[in-house]
Design goal:
The complex is a heterodimer of chains A (about 220) and B (about 80). Chain A is an alpha/beta fold. Chain A contains five helices and eleven strands, in the order βαββαβαββββαβββα. The model of chain B has no long low-confidence stretch (mean pLDDT about 95). The chains are: A alpha/beta (about 220), B alpha+beta (about 80).
Chain lengths: ~220, ~80
């Protein structure tokens, strides 16, 4: 599978993501700068990594979401290509309208950098098929604005359709997210957004590899 | 030239932890009777031209496309 990582000014987790994709897929991803208006047809997975694109000006991810590469990414996602947004990448996908809801300031008003527990609440997506439903995994978080919010109708809809794939478990919700939501997919199931950083838990040197199965599933390789 | 002021506020019902913290701080300063505090944003925008109706329509489009996240925020536009 051919992978790509989107680059925008202010992102800082791009190197971690490139390292993770390279280690798990065996091939380095191509990088796509924000001004690109097209994403090659042969790319099977596009990742928007974390960081602080445009310094979080206006709203987290708001400016990045209006860049040409995001228009190209939206078109590509509509054709079924797999897309993952992590942390700021999740905020960008939400701002760009690829995923429902919004991410607001953490309820504690504090930047939170720690390990949390996630429950896999839907293991039948192309991102979570390497886990089992109800499995609890470890994952680091590092964000200031991860408080997932949606109106009542949207929340009910994503819950009913199984679009909530990861939930903070064992009282580790770090940000006040509604229904402990940590990660969601779009209705078609090919776009994943999550606040935690699975790319930072893929090998023994990280202290664990609970995040590896996510990429292995998305890339259709053995974990 | 036309000047406009855009005010963006959180929709009713959307929790505002920053507003809440500011409210607590105001109470701490001794201001009694502070109820709800909601934090918002103000944008002052200058536009070329003299057509006020067109300017207002443009500013509303700017709000929908960028200045406000209409999932969680409302906006008002005032031409000055």
């Amino acid at each position: 599978m051919k992978t790509a990582v989107v680059l925008l000014p202010g992102l800082n987790r791009d190197r971690d993501m490139i390292a993770a994709l390279t280690k798990i897929s065996g091939t380095p991803p191509v990088t796509i700068w924000q001004t690109e208006t097209e994403i090659a047809d042969d790319i099977d997975l596009v990742v928007v990594p974390g960081g602080f694109s445009y310094g979080d000006y206006l709203r987290c991810g708001a400016i990045a979401a209006r860049m040409p590469v995001l228009r190209a990414l939206k078109e590509k996602a509509e054709r079924g290509t797999r897309v993952i947004g992590v942390c700021n990448g999740f905020q960008i996908l939400v701002e760009a309208g690829l995923l429902p809801g919004a991410l607001m300031r953490n309820a504690s008003l504090k930047f939170v950098c720690r390990e949390v527990k996630l429950e896999v609440t839907n293991a039948s997506t192309s991102f979570t098929s390497g886990y089992t439903k109800g499995q609890i995994i470890r994952c680091p978080v590092a964000h200031h604005d991860g408080n997932y919010v949606a109106d009542e109708a949207t929340l009910k809809s994503i819950e009913d359709k199984g679009q909530v794939v990861f939930r903070y478990a064992e009282c580790t919700n770090p940000n006040g997210s509604m229904n402990d939501i940590a990660g969601i997919v779009n209705e078609a199931g090919n776009v994943l957004g999550m606040m935690p950083h699975p790319e930072n838990l893929i090998e023994a040197a990280h202290g664990g590899d609970d995040g590896r199965a996510l990429f292995a599933a998305a890339l259709e390789v053995a974990a | 030239m036309i000047k406009a002021r855009v005010t963006v506020t959180l929709k009713n019902g959307v929790l505002d932890p920053q507003g809440k913290a500011i409210g607590h701080a105001l109470s701490g300063l001794g201001f009694d009777g502070v109820g709800s505090v909601r934090q918002g944003k103000v944008f002052d925008i200058e536009l070329d031209g003299t057509d006020r109706a067109a300017a207002e329509a443009d500013i509303k489009a700017m709000c929908d496309k960028l200045l406000a996240n209409t999932v969680i925020e409302d906006y008002t536009v005032t031409l000055i």
